[in-house]
Amino acid sequence: MFVRTLFEWLNETSMSVALRESIYGYPISLTSHVVSMCLIAGLLVMMDLRLTGLGNLKTSVSDIQNRLFPWQMIGLAMAVISGGALFFAQPMRFYVNFWFWIKMLLMLLALVNAMWFHNTIYQSVAQWDTDARPPKAARLAGLFGLLLWSGVIVTGRMIAYSGLVPQWWKDLNLDGMG
Amino acid sequence: MVLQFYEWMEGSALAVFFQSGVWYSPLIQVCHLVAVAVFCGALIVVDLRLLGVGLIKTPLKQVANDAQPWLVGGLIALAITGTPTLASTSIKQYYSPFWWWKMEMLAIGIIFLFTYRQKIVRTDENQLGPIRPKVVALVSMGLFLGVTIGARLIGLS
Predict the structure, then answer these.
(1) ipTM of this model?
(2) ∠ at Cα B18 (B16, B22), nearest 5°?
(3) Phi, psi (5° rounding) for residue A53?
(4) Quick check: is A106 in a domain?
(5) Are A42 and B39 within 8 A, CB to CB?
(6) How far is A1 from chain B (nearest CA, A)?
(7) What is the per-residue pLDDT across B127-151, written as a single tens digit (0 to 9) for each?
(8) Range of the domain at A112
(9) How far is B28 from chain A (nearest CA, A)?
(10) I want to staple A85 with a disulfide (CB 3.0 to 4.6 A). Which of A29, A66, A112, B42 is the partner?
């Protein structure tokens, strides 16, 4: 209930209304979001391929991690700003959207996966930095990263298909349309 | 002649199949986007290296060789997953200026990627000088940025 109240309040703010009524706000935000997705997801895929032992094997794991990280963060910053603008323009559209919430959940899980990797197996990276086949835990983290980020892309696109959702979600009747 | 071809595509068995189920079109579109991520990753990692940032400890030729299977694989996946979307909405695409913009940029981008850029990434780095690799990277990223923007705007036209 609190979340709905928050989203409704956001929906009525003058900035949200201005974004919603802007002719160019939506196409610019959406296009920027796709471009930022190419940067962040593309480089995360390259990093996770190295972790799984499937690609970029001639570069050490720590080098890929350290040198691609700043560019991933630039992509993430762009994605947060453009995604924030998209969300802020139509909070209630996203509140009732099944795929939006699944996307948020997958992003959270991707963050947990990255933190787990950095705080566990990556601590001993010096021992396997140049191995073509990293330890099992690192390969698993890479595989989860690939699956979770693919899921983020998939559910992000599916937001446009708000009617293609499970029946139990429709039964929640969040939009009050019966 | 071109319009007739687009009309034929929209009536083809492939188009009819993808229009027949509500899930077919979204499923193929999400596969297309995952292929975009793979292709862009393989493209950007080499372009950053050409700019003198990113994986600078690894020789340019090595970074490019490692990325090549994912670049080619991503491009093949893009073609496979893009064809049903094109077929099932071909008349809309035909009348969208952004579709033609995307295709022109894509054609120039692919030619550039597999000719001049390919030649540059296979050349000894010491012979390239400081400017040429950076120009190649900016042209490459600029062309595919154009493809991405055009692709996204088709849906909004």
Answers:
(1) 0.92
(2) 120
(3) 80, 20
(4) yes
(5) yes
(6) 31
(7) 999 999 999 999 999 999 999 999 9
(8) 2-172
(9) 10
(10) A29
